[in-house]
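Re: adenosine-5'-triphosphate structure - here you go.
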Amino acid sequence: IPGSKNIIKPESEISFEDIGGQKTAISELKEALDFVINKEKLSKMGIRPIKGILLTGPPGTGKTLLAKAAAKYTNSSFIATSGSEFIEMYAGVGAQRVRNLFETARNLARKENKNSAIIFIDEIDILGAKRGTNESHHEYDQTLNQLLVEMDGIKSDGEINILVIAATNRPDLLDPALLRPGRFDRQVVVDLPDKSGRLQILKIHTKNKPLGEDVNLEAIAENTFGFSGAHLESLCNEAAILAMRDNSDVILQKHFVEAVDKVILGEKSDKKPAE
Ligand code: ATP
């Protein structure tokens, strides 16, 4: 696609087993995806297909991972983009990109010999904010309209089935038109992990790391209240770096403990003063 260098990402091998915690989100998502898988049965029953699923929740909780796992689960091609990719100074460019996105997804599925494609749109609020609230946002309106047109055009008996999965941490900002039946009418909440979710995520991200005998991931999970999956991934990485600096062959508990502080401090220094 011209001018959209970051739109296409390689099809992933992420599956639901690679996602820690999020039990409820995974089962709700699977329930919706089973509709996609059993498409023929549904159309016999006259049930309309699911076209859009909205994942809501704080950053770094695994929304992108869930969308990738959804592609694997449904044997669909996967294409990822972000709302920010559609915002341009020139009128019509955003709308054209939306058209290209759907076309590219269909072409990709054909190329990969699949009969469905999942389009993931991160930060949907950037292009899907309530229309007409600000005149200077006229360009966003056209882009949003085009997205609605494309979604309304998805047919259950189409050659290639398209499912749009969108993510936002501000569902309150979305134009209600997006949430109407036949659009993003399924919402799945992807919250921060609880203690057992954190433990699962820590286990996933230490699977390929050498751990010392004194390592107690349970204690780390206990002491990381409020951490997202992304924080926990970064924590495991930091702990390994600290171990390496110590010339230790294995990661010890003290490295994890120190890494917790580093992640917390890093988070604080990333924050703008206004937040
Ligand atoms: P954002 O809203 O900021 O785009 P997101 O919710 O889409 O975030 P991801 O991109 O899926 O978050 O997660 C970022 C990284 O954090 C992942 O690549 C993974 O390493 C780690 N991660 C996040 N959540 C989980 C989880 N539930 N299980 C395992 N790893 C996770």
